[in-house]
Amino acid sequence: MNESLISIIVPIFNEELNIQALYSRIKNVLEKIDSKHEIIFVNDHSKDKSLDIIKDLAKNDIAVNYIDFSRNFGHQIAVSAGLEYCSGDYVTIIDADLQDPPELILNMYEKIKEGFDVVYAKRRSRKDRNVVKKVSYKLFYKILAAISQVKIPLDTGDFRMMKKNVVHELVLMQESNKFLRGQIAWLGFNQTYVEYDRDERAAGEPGYTYYKLFKLALDGLISFSNMPLRIATIMGFFVFILSLILIFYTLYSYFFNAYTPQGWASLMISVLFIGGIQLLTIGIIGEYIGRIQTEVRKRPLYVLRETNMKK
Fold it and tell me: What are phi and psi for residue 270, nearest 5 degrees?
């Protein structure tokens, strides 16, 4: 048997219909690798029987561990907790909805053994029926690639395998608004990918609502790019130049034109345009300031209710 330890981290939120199937498929893969392993389920305050199912698995398999949050802290924080508690030489992150096939872990492991530090799963195609989500994902990754200061791989999620040294550095990055795939890209190291076709969700409802997806996208854009601030500066400069032109035009009309046109249309357009730019700029700056305030508070990323692991 290979003496290296493999850790599998699975964030859980209302996945009672998928946990048993996921566990069985993961165990089948790990048997092929023939290595010591641990499976860490991080329960993000599920409302269904997810935690009960996980505890039953833990009773019958000493390799199964669980972490239970006191409330819902979000997917990225759940993964971060698993990274802090895991002990593996090789660490894999996978969601419980079975859209990402556990069998791909074997391919990742083979790549890792070739000398790579990170192997991420790149989607060749998606079988999601939701066209709006498909288009939104594509658009988000295109925008992120265009403005990010870090090269973040396109068409990837958090499904990946990493060596212990990468996980160690990742755990040290204790920012509150997590965007893990961006953080891993920022770390560098020797990274590669394996391609796959992403399946539909096996059962249950998606944990990521449109609001959560929007928040994740916002975290990614703000955490890894100063471009929104630069856009705000450019818009402010543009409005300043336009205002100067309007001021000079107004003064010229007042002193040199016999008739100065009077009307509310131009006034309203100017006021609304400038006011809109100001509010947008303040909103962008506010997002950055809000994140600074969150970091200054230094609250813990999560609070545990119970676990069968030692940190």
Answer: -65, -45
Q: How many residues are present in the chain?
A: 311
CA distance 55 to 58: 5
What percentage of the chain reaches a pLDDT higher than 90?
30
**101 closest CA partner among 17, 202, 178:** 202
More confident residue, 225 or 48: 48
The reported pTM is 0.71
Asked if residue 11 lies in contact with residue 44, where contact means CB atoms within 8 angstroms, the answer is yes
- Dig out the tokens for 67 from the structure: 């972490």
Q: What is the pLDDT of residues 260-299, one digit of tens each?
A: 556 555 665 666 667 667 766 776 777 677 667 666 667 7
* Residue closest to 83 by CA, chosen among 23, 38, 121: 38
73-82, 119-128, 213-222, 290-299: segment of lowest average pLDDT: 213-222
Region 27-45: mean pLDDT is: 90
Place of tokens 């698993």: 82
In order, the DSSP letters of the chain are: -EEEEEEEEEEESS-TTTHHHHHHHHHHHHHHHTEEEEEEEEE---SSSHHHHHHHHHHH-TTEEEEEESS---HHHHHHHHHHH---SEEEE--TTSSS-TTHHHHHHHHHHTT-SEEEEEEEEE--S-HHHHHHHHHHHHHHHHH-SS-PPTTEEEEEEEEHHHHHHHHH---SS--HHHHHHHH-SSEEEEEEEEPPPSSS--S--HHHHHHHHHHHHHHT--HHHHHHHHHHHHHHHHHHHHHHHHHHHHHH-SS----HHHHHHHHHHHHHHHHHHHHHHHHHHHHHHHHHHT--S--EEEES---
Strand order in the sheet with 64-69: 191-198, 118-126, 156-163, 90-93, 2-12, 35-43, 64-69, 304-307
Contact between residue 225 and residue 274 where contact means Cβ atoms under 8 Å apart: no
Tokens of 105: 């872990």
